[in-house]
Structure formats: C-alpha cells, structure tokens
Amino acid sequence: MKKGDVIECSIEDVSFPARGTAHLPGAGRTIYVKNTVPGQRVRCRVLKVRSGRAEAWPLEVLEKAPGEIEPDCRHFGSCGGCVYRQLPYEDQLKLKEHQVKKLLEGLVPEEKFEGIEPSPSVFGYRNKMEFSFGDEYMGGPLALGMHRQNSYYDIVTVEDCRIINDDFKKILKTVLDVCRRFALAFYHRSSHKGYLRHLVVRGSSATGDLLVDLVTSTQIARQEEEALEKELARALLKLNLEGRICGILHTHNDSLADAVNNQETSILYGQNYFYEELLGLKFKVTIFSFFQTNPRGAELLYRRVQEYIGETRGKNIYDLYSGTGTIAQILSPVAEHVTGVEIVEEAVEAARENARLNHLDNCSFIAGDVLKVLDELTEKPDLIVLDPPREGVNPHALRKIISYQVPHMVYVSCKPTSLQRDLGELMKCGYRPQRCSMIDMFPGTASVETICSLSRQEA
After folding, report:
1. How many Cβ atoms are within 10 Å of 69's Cβ, its own excluded?
2. Model pTM score
3. Distance (Å, whole) CA 36 – CA 20
4. 414 catalytic, yes or no?
5. N or C: which end of the chain has fewer CB within 10 A?
6. Looking at 179, 246, 414, 436, which residue is catalytic?
7. In whole angstroms, how far apart are CA 272 and each of 58, 117, 297, 355?
8. In which band, very low, low, confident or very high, does the pLDDT at 257 lie, cut at 50, 70 and 90?
C-alpha cells in the first residue's frame, strides 16, 4: 500500500472525530477513512502511509451501512460542515457517545459515564456562521458558503443549509447577489490578492436581532467600496425576515491567515451588538464575542455544569478560559467570589458589561494568558472550572492549576482528544473522574461537548 492507491474496504468501527477504521488482509495496518460510519463499504484513496496505520479519503460509498437514510440536506457530501446527515438523529447520538467513551477508555470508568443529551433543536440551531467567499471550482462563478469536503480552495454556496434558519439563508443569497453584481474578486488564499473574504452572520434566539458583517481586504478604491457598502445595506434592509437586522458592519482584514481577523470594523447601519438570554441571565453579544453557537443547547450544557459543580455557597471559584463570562455569572449568585480569566480582551470587556447588566458584583474578569495570570492571583480557589479552547489547557498552565490542589474541578471540553490528554495529566497528580457526560451541541457534525467532574484523592 502506498500514497495515491485506490482501495476498497469495509468500515468496522469509528474513532473521534468521524474516522472510520478498517483493515485489509495482509496490509498489516489500520486504515483510517475520514467521514465514514461503521457498516459502510467504501472505495477510497490513500493519503498517508505510516508504520502500522494509513489515512484515506472516501471516493464512493459502495454499500450503505444498516440504518442509513437519504441525507436530509442537498449539500451533504460536498459541503465540509456536516458528516452525519445520512444517519437518523438517534444513531448520530449513539455514534458520538461511542467515540467519546472509546477515546476516554482507561481514564473514565464505564460506570462514571452518564450518556449523551440531545440538542433541543436538530435543524436551524446555529446562531453564528462564518461563510467564505471563493469559487465552487477553479475559474467558476463567485461562491459564498462553506469549504468543500477535503478542499482548501473550493467553496460550496450553502443556500439550503439545514443547520441555519431561513433568515441566514436569505442574507447569504442577498450578499452574494450584490457582490456578483459588483464583479469583485474574492481573496485568493495562495496569492493573497483579491477583496472579498468572509461573511459573518449572527443572531439572537431571544430577540431575533441579527448582525451582518462583510469581511474584506482593503484592495479596492475607497470610492468603489463606499458604493458597495451603500448597495449592500439597501438590499439587506429590504429583506422580509422573521427577525430584524439590527446592525450591518464592514470589517477590514489584510492578514494572511484564512480566518476572520478584526483589524478595523465600521458600522454601516444600526449597532454592533445585540442581547441574548441564557438561564435567566442577559448577555451583550458583538459580532466577534465568543458565545455558544447553539443557545438552547448551551442552557443544557450550563445546567449540567451547575449540577456537576454542586454547592458553591461561600466558595472562591476560578473560571479559567471564561470567554464572555457565562459560567462565572451562572455560578456567582451564591458563591463568595468568581474570578474569570480570558486572553481575548474584547471577551473580557463583554463579560464585565454582562455582569453589570445582571447586577452581579461578586465576579471579576481578568484579561490575560491563564499561565501568567495565575502567578498574579493571591487568593487560593476552592473550586476550578476549566472551559479551554479546542487545543485544551497549556501544559505549563495545567501544572499550575494542579498545584492549587483544589478538592473539586469541572472540565468542559469542545474537543474530546484535548480532554483525553489533559485528563491523563490530572490523573497522574491524584484527580479522578467522578461523572462524565456529553451534550450534543452540533447535530449533523462530528463535534460534541463533554463535561467531566473530577475529585482529588488524598495520597
């Protein structure tokens, strides 16, 4: 077996994230086939070959798995967003639970797992999308949407996407139509030439308010840009929507990275924020705020965090990687004090403002790297909540966190492989998982939130 070979194999199992596993007689290695499910027989192309393993990309499903259904989205298979739309939702949940349990085997005892909770909504649940400009194929017409599966360049215009609501779809189509009329070039990721980069749409499930942000380079004349801004605002405000556009923004981004970076944002219409509500608390959300993209699912997640934390009365709590301070504010009403630490300054400012909105005066928020901020804090915590980004906790920061020797800790993970790594280190230092469960915040996709409660065992 070598790179580039086309092979046929039967998918026997699945590992996180959505990597089917197969074996070929005489191959002597495990073959990982992306975006496949157990029971399928597939034709695939070998991408990498290593000692004991190979990675492959599916080209064709030759035999469907038992229980497969007709995908409920016409973009499925081309768009790189969802991987499980060919499965009934109950089977998606079982598959995600299986992957996490398999990943944490040997770390979390079977009896400590408490299952997976479904999302309150399976369709139209996302309140934020970052769409990319590009072309669906080299030299094709301008597209706006999601990256094509297994492609760095091609874009699929996802005008019928099932995880966003109709308002998002109308906004996407309108922005694409306007940009096509202006015949502007999209930003090429290799040459770094071009103007159109991203479209960010964000909505409030509580109020229906919507923010729309066009993200571009600065590579056209200002006069032409002003004409585009004017026409874009006019077209968007004419739309018949269920919600209400409360702000239209334009962000300039000349960084080389293929990501939405805010170098300068101007308001073309309205305001640059709206309000969202979770568990009776009010939160001010801007276009760049970190905030859970499935608000009703987030309420399930935070209720589970509350449950795992237990009694907080009179306790000094550290909420590390606190984002806009959601967990800190949920815990603060009966705690002695909650200290949130977050590296993104805008998120910290939002957390402080949200605390004022909710009349909470016993939580404070510090902008900075957790690793450095912990050296500056003097009051020892009674309890620590960890909700790190996808890459998990910095190993040096984790050692400092462990050094507090708090009796109880709760870890919220959006990437189970990072939780697996950090759990191993925590367990070496005397912590043991007490409860572990999952919340499906992202139906149709491979992602899942995992919550783990840990207690420290005295030596």
Report:
1. 11
2. 0.92
3. 5
4. yes
5. C
6. 414
7. 42, 34, 25, 19
8. confident
